[in-house]
Write a structure and sequence with these properties.
149 residues, four-stranded antiparallel sheet, globular, binds 2'-deoxyadenosine-5'-diphosphate, binds magnesium ion, single chain, alpha+beta
Length: 149
């Protein structure tokens, strides 16, 4: 089963939108398999966002993601990466469709509330940065059969 890393970024935590964001992913039918409130340090921020190191916004991105607690989660479903990405909406909330997390809750690309891995390969790499293998749980829900055929 595919798993993906989600972060409620510091703006989401500070604005009291953690429950709103988790609720949307829960209602979609994704299964929560790991979660923790944590402070991202400089080293973790650099590893997590390593692909963007040469971009002009990199320093601001690191400073933002380390500016307060984040809620790190692993969510599971068939096609979890794509389902989370479509639920998040476009990177820039100004272009994100209404009905998406970023499209309903944000206005600025530098305060876009949520991170979701962009491919199964990124998800595996990012999940290993944020969670020990034993922190990602395996369990069934009594209503799984009403969510997946
Ligand atoms: P996403 O978070 O949708 O996967 P990304 O991986 O391209 O987007 O970029 C990571 C984060 O960096 C993004 O959530 C917000 C920030 N960012 C991206 N492009 C930016 C830009 N042009 N100006 C400012 N911040 C940007
Ligand atoms: Mg990305």
């Amino acid at each position: 089963m595919e798993q993906t890393l989600v972060l409620v970024k510091p703006d989401g935590v500070q604005r009291g939108l953690t429950g709103e964001i988790i609720g949307r992913l829960e209602r979609r039918g994704l299964k929560l398999v790991a979660m923790k409130l944590m402070q991202v340090d400089d080293a973790l921020a650099h590893r997590h966002y390593g692909e963007h190191v040469d971009r002009p916004f990199f320093a601001g991105l690191v400073s933002f993601i380390t500016s307060g607690p984040v809620v790190a989660m692993a969510w599971e479903a068939n096609n979890a990466v794509e389902i989370v990405r479509s639920t998040m909406g476009a990177t820039n909330p100004a272009n994100a469709a209404p009905g998406t997390i970023r499209g309903d809750l944000g206005v600025d690309i530098g305060r876009n509330l949520i991170h979701g891995s962009d491919s199964p390969e990124s998800a595996a790499r990012e999940l290993a940065l944020f969670f020990k293998p034993e922190e990602i749980l395996s369990y069934s829900r009594s209503n799984d059969g009403w969510i997946v055929e």
